[in-house]
Specification:
single chain; alpha+beta; twelve-stranded mixed β-sheet; 27% helix
Length: 318
């Protein structure tokens, strides 16, 4: 697409999602997420600090994403993606297990399927048939994942303060999620403050030490001009988080409007919403009883490598 969504702005958004959706591994500091708040930064900071230290080992996940880009040569119409099903962590260096229904709609394409990952294999269900990735390929991917996995750096180690990213956050009672009451932190994101906080994190001793140990270059901090560029790109960015009485993050909802500062007619908008139910109540994820080789499914999409999503895709639902 021709719309120029600046790399620093997009990196900031992705980091925000990762920081909030994937809580850092930490000790359980006890309950106390419930109760009323007066809307102060202190209340927001306390709720977020507790929630982002809680480890989610299992949950029923529901994720919805929708967006649309208005620009020359961009996909026409809105794009929607949804994922739903149980999730189970298998430890820091192991692939997680999951059983998710997957649905995608956009650009005249509609796909429905299912992704199943167990502790030793993976499967894809498409058009009523199930296909097996196979233990050999799964083992190779699993070993590579284990080699690259490291204990995540905490927000404290990076010097990140999520509450400071909000412009006057509000704290109050949220909707019940899975029968559990929640507190809600919501507000507009101060993009400049967030990118500045991210800039400081990039220069943190903890991150520098890890990157240098890996032989990776330490990224440069964004310049004042790049921070301003990010502020001009995000015309709107709002976040809402729900935290339950046991301090678990149960929902993250994000909405954003972006605009190319050099060409205002080029715009994008999107929303991201993920909800966690049955947190740490266990997850029963089993392999399907019958499955075909994954190569049979790949053959159905062989036309994608040559002519894109053109006329040679008879197996894709209209």
């Amino acid at each position: 697409m021709s719309i120029r969504l600046h790399s620093k702005a997009l990196a900031a958004l992705l980091t925000l999602l990762l920081a909030l959706v994937v809580p850092a591994c930490g000790s359980d500091d006890g309950g106390g997420g419930g109760g009323g708040g007066d809307g102060s930064n202190g209340d927001a900071a306390e709720l977020l600090d507790k929630a982002l230290k809680k480890q989610v080992d299992t949950a029923d996940v529901k994720l919805d994403f929708s967006g649309e880009v208005k620009a020359e040569n961009a996909p026409q119409g809105p794009i929607k993606l949804s994922l739903e099903g149980p999730y189970k962590s298998n430890g820091q260096k192991a692939l997680p297990s999951l059983d998710w229904k997957v649905a995608f709609e956009g650009s005249s394409i509609k796909l429905d399927g299912r992704l199943i990952v167990t502790e030793n294999n993976a499967f894809v269900e498409y058009q009523g048939r199930t296909y097996e990735v196979g233990t050999a390929l799964y083992d190779r991917v699993s070993k590579l994942y284990a080699q690259q996995s490291q204990e995540p750096l905490s927000l404290d180690a990076l010097g990140l303060e999520p509450a400071s990213w909000f412009d006057d956050p509000e704290v109050g009672d949220g909707d019940d999620i899975g029968g559990d009451s929640t507190q809600k932190v919501s507000g507009a994101v101060d993009v400049g403050a967030f990118v500045k906080d991210l800039s400081d994190a990039l220069q943190s001793p903890a991150l520098k030490q890890r990157l240098e140990a890996q032989g990776s270059p330490v990224p440069k901090a964004p310049t004042k001009a790049e921070i301003k560029e990010a502020e001009e790109t995000f015309k709107k960015l709002t976040v809402a988080l729900n935290v339950d009485e046991d301090d678990f993050l149960r929902r993250l909802a994000l909405e954003g409007d972006l605009e190319n500062p050099d060409k205002p007619s080029e715009q994008a908008n999107g929303s991201f919403d993920v909800t966690l139910e049955s947190v740490n109540e266990g997850a029963d994820i089993k392999a399907p009883s019958k499955a075909r080789p994954i190569t049979e499914l790949l053959q159905q999409f062989r036309g994608l490598g040559g002519g894109g999503l053109g006329g040679g895709r008879p197996d894709i639902a209209p």
